[in-house]
Amino acid sequence: MKILSFNPAHDGTFAYLEDGRLITSVEAEKDSHYRHSPLTIPDVFSIFNDINEIPDVLCRGGWWPGDNNAIERNTISGYHGISNSSIITKKQHLFGKEINYFSSSHERSHILCAFGMSNLPKGTPCYVLLWEGVIGAYYKIDSKLNIIKLADVMPEPGHRYALLYGIGDPTFDKKSAEFSRFSDAGKLMALASFSNRSKPTNEEEKLISFLMQDCPHLKPKECEAFRDFKHYNVGLQDPEFRNFAGIFSDRIFDRFYEYAKLNLERNMPLLIVGGCGLNCDWNTKWREVNYFSEVFVPPVANDSGSAIGTAIDAQFHFTGNPKIEWNVYSGRDFIFDDTVDIELFDVYETNHELVSEMLANDLILGWVNGKYEIGPRALGNRSILAAPFTESTRIRLNEIKQREQFRPIAPICLEEDAEKWFNCNRPSPFMLYTQLVSTDALSAVTHVNGTSRIQTVTRESNNNLYELLVSFKKRTDFGVLCNTSLNFNGKGFINNISDLSAYTINHKLDGFVAGGRCHLLKSSKYYQKFKRMQNSKDYGQLT
User: Fold this and answer.
1) Is this prediction's pTM over 0.70?
2) Which of the listed residues 57, 115, 195, 466 has the most CB atoms within 10 Å of its CB?
């Protein structure tokens, strides 16, 4: 069965399944479009370049009702709803072929995404924690895949978490904003790691009670009531605000964990989904409490996985199969839409020894390999790579990325070396957990609290990246590199050579690797230094 699914709104995405296998997932933000973009009409036409046949099922994910409520109620499922009665099906025609139309709720899309992508066999009872900008709830899935909501634990956990960042940030317009900024949750996660105080002040307790109150929606303008509080517009460099960021982060986690201890059976699997599933500190805590037999978070935990979840829901509805085969590198191929100006670049035939030597000599390179990653994390196919050793590299990477210096840089590591350098004794292929760094040699990828958001790599998961890490290890004794996403600030991954060339020039990368060629920016002082040092070696320069 061929299923084409789309989530048209926030984090707009198309997903295509064929006979229980994810063929592609195409997110509107990718290819340098604005983060969290909805689908556009050109996106609708372009998806048919990615599929070979007219699908048997067309799915639309549920969302908030629009202006045409009466019409939409008959064709589009809503945001909330877990029962089968929330599912809408009908026959319709697409390009002359009669197909099935399917729509189920946004809530179900997250739950089915988590179950369908997990390694749990069909019929395995489990719990699901869905926490995101709107929903913060526990569910149980029974052996027949009935979904039972156990409790709404806290409304809007993702929004309330990000709102604290906005309270401290004087640039956030609290009076007119209807919602917290999408980017602020990740920034608060970084700030929380600076915290070295666990007990809140009386004033902070009042702010916690305000942020965690039980109301459907907490508007940013309501924060105006706290104008006289110490943390209001104090700025993000303030150490006491950073202390409070950690305290508040722990308090949200504790609310959900306390519910679990009181109400959930021990040693059952836990599936975590929703935007809060991208919080590596919380994911790590869920593993460390040892309450569940296993914890799984999909790499598309946020709304980028919603279209996949709706497709899985449709597949289960029509075939009885709630499971899919999938690969995290299921995006689109890189587009060579133009030629690179050789007046600006030296060009080499790429080999792992050359790239390792450049990285070991402090060059910072864009790295393009195969199809882009699904979800928001760069996992070695649309990445910026650098040596992991010095604080100055971390500073330079954040300058290249045009982002705050308190933001950490993540490492990629050979899986066989992960325990040695990061105390990580299990695979961590999707950069969703933190680990304590066990050496002071990796300053560029060690956050202020001594942790790293690690991605482990095997030959099977990403052979080209694995071979590069092996080569870098031969050169430096460390099979570890800095890895951060290759994107313009506020936009999705770069996916064409024109943007990559422009980014390299304007953001001062030293070069990039794409399509079997290594392009080195002639104006880069780091490259020129490398060239002088390696003058006697023949690395196969083409131009």
Assistant:
1) yes
2) 115
